[in-house]
Amino acid sequence: MEKVMGYCVKCRDKAGREMKGVSVVEIKPGRFAAKGTCTVCETGMYKILSKDNADKLKKAI
Ligand SMILES: [Zn+2]
């Protein structure tokens, strides 16, 4: 399973937090995001992905 880092609004760690339970969602046509939860505080996180990264991640998870 691929590690996905994202910014957690609760931890506010600029280095980012690892996301768990990651899934790729289409937030609007042609715009993809990784959706998951922070491994530290369980807050829901999103990370905007390019089309290429979304395709790559879909295969990896
Ligand atoms: Zn967090």
Question: Key terms for this structure?
Answer:
binds zinc ion; 4-stranded antiparallel sheet; 61 residues; 16% helix; alpha+beta
Account of the 3D structure:
It is a single chain. By secondary structure, this protein is α+β, with helices and mostly antiparallel strands. The chain has one domain. The chain is 16% helix and 48% strand. It contains 1 helix and 4 strands. It has one helix at 51-60, and strands spanning 4-6, 17-28, 31-38, 44-49. The protein has a 4-stranded antiparallel β-sheet with strand order 1-2-3-4. A hairpin with a 5-residue loop joins strand 3 (31-38) and strand 4 (44-49). The radius of gyration is 11 Å and the shape is globular. The model has no long low-confidence stretch (mean pLDDT 93). Zinc ion is lined by residues 8, 10-11, 17, 38, 40-41, 43.
Task: Detail the topology: elements first, then pairings.
Elements: E1 4-6, E2 17-28, E3 31-38, E4 44-49, H1 51-60
Antiparallel strand pairs: 1-2, 2-3, 3-4
The protein binds zinc ion.
Q: Ligands in the structure?
A: zinc ion
Q: How many strand segments?
A: 4
Indicate how many domains the architecture comprises: 1
Largest sheet: 4 strands, antiparallel
Indicate the overall shape. globular
Structural class by secondary-structure content: alpha+beta
> What level of helicity do the residues show?
10-25%
Order of strands in the sheet with the most strands? 1-2-3-4
> Distance between the terminal alpha carbons, to the nearest Å?
6 Å
Order of helices and strands: EEEEH
Q: Percent of residues in beta strands? A: over 45%
**Which consecutive residue ranges, at least 5 long each, have pLDDT under 50?**
none
Number of helices: 1
Q: Roughly how many Å is the radius of gyration?
A: 11 Å
Mean of all residue-level pLDDT scores: 93
